[in-house]
Specification:
Elements (H helix, E strand, L loop, with lengths): L1 H4 L4 H11 L25 H15 L3 H17 L3 H17 L3 H18 L2 H17 L3 H8 L18 H7 L3 H17 L3 H17 L3 H31 L3 H31 L3 H18 L3 H18 L6 H12 L22 H17 L3 H17 L3 H16 L5 H17 L3 H25 L1 H24 L2 H6 L2 H27 L20 E8 L4 E6 L5 E6 L3 H15 L9 H10 L4 H6 L4 E5 L24 E4 L18 E5 L4 E3 L2 E3 L5 H11 L3 E5 L5 H10 L4 E5 L2 E3 L7 E4 L3 E4 H10 L7 E6 L2 E3 L4 H8 L1 H4 L2 E7 L5 H17 L4 H15 L6 H4 L2 E5 L3
Parallel strand pairs: 1-4, 4-5, 6-9, 6-10, 10-14, 11-15, 14-16
Antiparallel strand pairs: 1-2, 2-3, 7-8, 11-12, 12-13, 16-17
Helix pairs in contact: 2-16, 3-4, 4-5, 5-6, 6-7, 7-8, 7-9, 7-10, 8-10, 9-10, 10-11, 10-12, 11-12, 12-13, 12-14, 13-14, 14-15, 15-16, 16-17, 16-18, 17-18, 18-19, 18-20, 19-20, 20-21, 21-22, 21-24, 22-24, 28-33, 29-30, 33-34
Length: 888
């Protein structure tokens, strides 16, 4: 499955998005003769009229800069004569021209003026159409939620079909004026925006509706746009399934992997049909832009679907046709991106650079053609004065020289790319790429200090734009993380390994400062990982932005950072002292050891062997055993990385005792998201939900949980101020209703739960054979919150995360954050529900009756099972439970 495992690098995705967001309205600029305004009998200056027409002619020739000059002069004349209708036409033309050269902020400024003018002229049909144009501009900036609000209004983004669009929205205005063109355009733009938010099925519904209207009114350009957008939606669905298949294969779920791969191929085949239909229409319309757009979209599908030499020849033939079309396009931002994308598509996308696996180099025989295309892209971008596309073209060209080890030229081009990006705030999403490229080059030249500075510049840029890029397109989020991940880890490696002589000779406070910077750096990556996993709606409010270690006099924090060839383990003690050690095993060896440990732990019947538990103890704890004893540590908080998140630390073994017998244990994704706050007497009210019956969700059977009723009874007895919802009463609507009526600081959910590689695979089983995703749970909690205080604790007592799936474990690590809670009690694998009921009851009793904190209460419950002896003393029964987030 290696073909599908290759993800497209982020550059290609950003380039292609420029071509795939359809301009549903306004293929040509408006002239005073093309638009019928509300009051057309307005006198106009012949000179101004001539300037407008000259601008149209320059626009049609692709000379957008000259067109802007003509129209700016005409606009001044119309403003002097107070000719509002013709002012509006010229403003509309200017908006389209600025959009063509990539100055989207200017385009938005003009679209807003156009809308205001049409409102004053009383032409509400045109208001609706221009709102659609404005929405498309915001989509180009990645602000898809803003686009949806303009197209339909601020509605429920998960269930918009249940809510009519607001009267002043683009779609509703088009409907009210029976403007079929406007309806088709708004629906198409809405579909594109939802696709970019990752709502693929919803996007397909809107796009199919748009296509149906375009076919009824026999509007071929709209049909071509709708077909192209449908192709993109199915292609996006395919990429998601490929990623899920690769993850399933990696953790040994072969049958699931094959099913997901088959699903992905079906979606790719469907996408290909739509692209081909769009291409056919573009050919009949002699629409070169539409043709190259369709062909560029098709080529990656031929890569993924190629099964024979004939298929390979097919994508090569398509590439050649797209290349031939390039010269027919006028100079524009889209032409620059098309040239860069053609360079990227010269060879199948595959990771090929071992030290930076998501950076690929061209095969030597393809380098000359790639260089020529990128040089052409640079020239066009400079001619149209588009700094954004110029930045990408220069940076890509610089990377070719980096691959050749010609570092002086590579550095020169990377610096030029940085300067171009800095000319325009909208190009910041390229700035970090060239700062990273500069850092890599410095590193290869042995300039460690300069490399560290460049890496830190890249990360500083990322911190300002991470949310914008992650919310720009669900398509790029996973790939974006794979591009971002190496930046953080390479910087950490440089700081920890780059100059060992300097660090060893430095004063203790210098070494501590260096470690603090490392921890802060990795915290930034943890935030990016969580937002990437949970998607564009993930709410990450740092409650401890300065990252002051939240440790009491008896608490220590252990952080792990997995690098390529070894792993750093960092200890933070209550007095601020920092120490670190290394696990001298490569990433894959660690993965194998952890997976073996998990498999042994999950066995309820095989004789338990503590050898693997001792090995991991020796990695993480033994190097610091003396320091922990001297500091009289009672609680260990783990901030684990990657596959280490799947390890239940309570089960580590020192040869005599399990770790939980010596320490209370908690885990958190990052201290910046951890707010230390103990439960108060006012917090003792719980909403308890449970499922006792068997369920079937999406064709999958979940067995009955006969002891859930016992668990619910035990929780409600310990917390009398509780309300319970069992079986058919446990629904999304009832949950929202109860949370809206009463404040519940504790939410306890006893049901089957799955944490998967993608958020779509992460859900809780509810009554009536339904499911509730963690995202939906978060939205329910936040939408009905009657207080500014978040939920104190959410307990999920029958969840599971697959062995070896570190991405799914990331979802579990962040469950408290995404569910809008300060902390969570959850399990790494499914346990006998009788044992779960006992753990839950003792956990709450420890919290309420013994005044223990959450980590201590869980430890007491686990030790009770361990000391009971017999089968329940096996780690399989007590080890998987974790306190996540605030452990106080």
């Amino acid at each position: 499955m290696s073909r599908q495992s290759s993800v497209r690098i982020v550059l290609g995705l950003l380039f292609l998005s420029s071509l795939t967001i359809s301009l549903w309205l306004g293929h040509l600029p408006a002239t005073t003769w093309q638009l019928q305004l509300g009051n057309p009998a307005t006198a106009q200056s012949p000179d101004a009229s001539q300037l407008v027409q000259q601008g149209v002619e320059r626009y049609q020739l692709g000379d957008f800069t000259s067109a802007i000059e003509y129209w700016q002069t005409a606009l001044t004349t119309y403003q002097q004569t107070n000719n509002r209708p013709n002012q509006t036409i010229v403003l509309e033309n200017l908006a389209r021209a600025y959009q063509q050269i990539g100055q989207i902020d200017q385009a938005i400024n003009y679209w807003e003026k156009v809308i205001t003018n049409y409102q004053q002229l009383g032409d509400l049909q045109q208001v609706g159409r221009m709102l659609t144009e404005l929405a498309q501009a915001y989509s180009k900036l990645g602000q898809n939620q803003k686009a949806i609000a303009l197209l339909c209004g601020t509605i429920n983004y998960d269930y918009p079909q249940d809510h009519p669009c607001v009267p002043e929205s683009a779609l509703q205005l088009a409907h009210s004026h029976q403007d079929q063109l406007g309806v088709a355009a708004a629906l198409g733009s809405l579909g594109d925006a939802y696709r970019l938010r990752g709502k693929y099925d919803l996007a397909i519904n809107y796009l199919e509706e748009s296509l149906t209207i375009a076919q009824k009114i026999d509007h071929l350009p709209y049909q071509s746009s709708a077909l192209n957008s449908l192709g993109n939606a199915y292609s996006s669905k395919a990429q998601l399934s490929y990623r899920r298949a690769n993850s399933a294969e990696k953790i040994g779920y072969t049958r699931k992997a094959l099913a997901l791969e088959a699903k992905a191929k079906n979606n790719d085949s469907e996408a290909l049909k739509y692209f081909q239909k769009s291409l056919d229409i573009a050919i009949t319309q002699n629409d070169q832009s539409g043709q190259i757009r369709a062909r560029l979209n098709e080529i990656p599908l031929y890569y993924r679907l190629s099964e024979s030499s004939a298929s390979v020849m097919k994508w090569q033939k398509e590439w050649q046709k797209a290349y031939s079309l390039l010269e027919t396009l006028p100079d524009s931002q889209d032409k620059v991106y098309a040239a860069i994308e053609l360079a990227n598509l010269l060879q199948p996308i595959a990771p090929a650079h071992e030290t930076s696996p998501w950076i690929r180099c061209y095969q030597p025989k393809l380098e000359p053609q790639a260089t020529a295309l990128l040089a052409q892209a640079v020239r066009i971008a400079q001619r149209i004065n588009d700094h954004r596309s110029q930045s990408f073209a220069l940076g890509e060209l610089g990377h070719i020289y980096e691959c050749r080890d010609q570092y002086t030229k590579a550095l020169e081009l990377s610096q030029q790319a940085r300067l171009a990006a800095e000319q325009n705030l909208l190009a910041k999403d390229s700035l970090y790429l060239w700062e990273w490229q500069t850092a890599r080059i410095f590193k290869e030249q042995g300039k460690v200090t300069e490399a560290i500075g460049a890496y830190e510049n890249a990360i500083a840029t990322l911190e300002t734009i991470r949310s914008d890029i992650l919310t720009a397109s669900r398509d790029v989020q996973f790939d974006f993380l794979d591009t971002v991940n190496p930046i953080y880890r390479q910087l950490v490696a440089l700081r920890l390994e780059g100059d060992q002589t300097l660090l060893k000779s430095a004063l203790p406070d210098v070494r501590t400062q260096n470690i603090n910077i490392v921890l802060k750096t990795i915290d930034g990556l943890k935030l990016a990982e969580l937002q990437d996993y949970f998607g564009n709606d993930c709410v990450l409010a740092a409650v401890n932005p300065a990252r002051v270690d939240l440790v009491s006099t008896r608490t220590a924090v252990i952080s792990t950072i997995i690098l390529k060839d070894r792993t750093a383990v960092i200890l933070s003690l209550p007095n601020g002292e920092k120490q670190w050690s290394w696990i001298d095993s490569d990433r894959e060896s660690i993965r194998q050891d952890i997976n073996q440990f998990r498999r042994e732990l999950e066995s309820f019947f095989e004789p338990y062997n503590s050898q693997q538990a001792q090995k991991i103890y020796n990695w993480l704890i033994r190097p610091f055993a003396n320091q922990l004893e001297q500091a009289q540590i009672e609680t260990l908080v783990f901030i684990n990385d990657g596959i280490l998140r799947t390890v239940p630390m309570a089960a580590l073994h020192d040869g005599e005792k399990f770790l939980v017998e010596r320490y209370a244990i908690a885990t958190t994704p990052t201290l910046t998201l951890t707010e230390p706050k103990a439960l108060t007497p006012q917090s003792w009210r719980a909403l308890v939900l449970g499922l006792t019956k068997e369920a079937i969700v999406d064709g999958r059977e979940f067995e009955a949980l006969s002891n859930v009723s016992t668990e619910v009874k035990a929780v409600t007895q310990t917390i009398p101020e509780s309300k319970q919802l069992l079986d058919e009463e446990f629904t999304r609507d009832r949950l929202q209703q109860e949370l809206g009526a009463t404040v519940y600081p504790i939410i306890h959910i006893a049901t089957h739960g799955e944490f998967g590689t993608e958020p779509e695979d992460t859900f809780l089983v509810t009554g009536e054979n339904d499911q509730l995703t963690i995202d939906e749970l978060d939205r329910v909690i936040r939408s009905v919150a009657s207080t500014t205080e978040p939920v104190e604790l959410i307990s999920l007592t029958a969840c599971r995360t697959a062995t070896g799936d570190d991405r799914a474990a990331l979802g579990l690590a962040g469950v408290a954050v995404q569910a809008g809670a300060r902390s969570a009690l959850a399990s790494l694998w499914f346990i006998n529900d009788q044992t779960t009921a006992q753990i839950a009851a003792q956990f709450y009793q420890g919290l309420r009756q013994s005044n223990l904190n959450k980590a201590q209460a869980l430890r007491a419950a686990q030790i009770a099972l361990l000391e009971a002896g017999g089968q329940y003393a096996r780690p399989a029964y007590w080890a998987p439970y974790l306190v996540i987030g605030n452990w106080f």
